Amino acid sequence: MAHNASFDQRFLLAEFQRYQLDVPASVACSMLAARRVFPESPNHKLGTLVHYLELPAASRFHRALADASMTAALWARMEQELRDQYGFTEVPFALLHRLGHVTRDKASRFLQQQVERQQNKSSC
Q1: What share of the chain is helix, strand, coil (3-state, %, to 5)?
Q2: 5-18 pLDDT, tens per residue?
Q3: Which of 64, 65, 93, 105 is deepest in the core (most CB within 10 A)?
Q4: Residue 119 has what DSSP assignment?
C-alpha cells in the first residue's frame, strides 16, 4: 500500500529487482481509496487527508518513514469508516484495493454489495 501508488510503484519495483525479490502481486493506493471513502475532503493529498481527518501527523512530509506511518493511519481510518458507515465486520486489503478502481457513482453500491457478501458468508 502506498499513497499515490502509481508514483511510488516505479521506485518499489526497481528496489525489488535490485535485490532480486519477488514483486508483490498487487499494490493498493490509499489515495484512490480515500477518494471513495472521503469524497468530501478538500483534496486527497496525504497531508490534506491527515489534517482533515485529524490523524497523527509527522513533523515532515515526503520522508519515507513519516509518509508510511501517516499512510498506515489513513488506511486504518478508512477501514474504521467502512465498518461504521456500512457495517463491515472486517475490511480486507482486497476490498480497499478494488474500491480505488470503482467509479465515484458506483462506489456506494459496490460497498453495499461487498458487505452483503460478507454477511452471507458469515451466515453460512
Answers
A1: 65, 0, 35
A2: 877 778 888 888 99
A3: 93
A4: H
